[in-house]
Design brief:
Blueprint lengths: L1 H13 L7 E10 L14 E4 L2 H14 L11 E10 L4 E10 L14 E9 L12 H17 L2
Antiparallel strand pairs: 1-2, 1-4, 3-4, 3-5
Helix pairs in contact: 1-3
Length: about 150
């Protein structure tokens, strides 16, 4: 009976409920000359669930930089992370957010000729465009196994 309970808990903990993808969303501007000064007026990017509004916000921020990356809306999403630097103004722009699955952020030409792409990535897993991917499902599974083992073997 204990083994059946343990196996059932492990299976339930490893199954993820169907939900929309979560991406870090936000835009940052960094002065390349003053990288050690704090930014008082900027909002720190945070994780959001991709949907029509969040994707439209990210797509609008992206279209300012790369106008030819526009695509038709859909209900399938992915995350992106783009860092571009302007050689004239010595500013870097970092844009993260949700985009439509058919949209390709890493292709396309910048609006300004002085902009150059430093980093670009696209991914389809939860929280994959953040600084650290926390691997939440594995943490939940390991905590569940630990709790059940503690309960059964105390």
């Amino acid at each position: 009976m204990k083994a059946i309970l343990l196996v059932t808990c492990c299976i339930l903990a490893s199954v993820n409920a169907a939900q929309a993808i979560k991406c870090m969303q936000g835009t940052e501007s960094v002065n390349l000359a003053d990288t050690d000064k704090p930014k008082d007026n900027e909002k720190t990017p945070e994780f959001v669930e991709c949907g029509i509004l969040n994707t439209a916000t990210s797509a609008a921020a992206l279209l300012v930089l790369k106008p030819n990356t526009a695509t038709s809306p859909s209900t399938d999403y992915k995350c992106f992370h783009l860092r571009a630097e302007d050689s004239q103004t010595k500013w870097a722009t970092i844009v993260k957010g949700c985009i439509y699955k058919a949209q390709n952020v890493c292709d396309g030409k910048f609006k300004l000729d002085t902009m150059r792409e430093v980093f670009c990535s696209q991914c389809e897993q939860d929280e994959c465009n953040g600084a650290v991917n926390l691997a939440a499902p594995w943490k939940i599974l390991s905590l569940t196994v630990f709790a059940v083992a503690f309960y059964l073997f105390k």
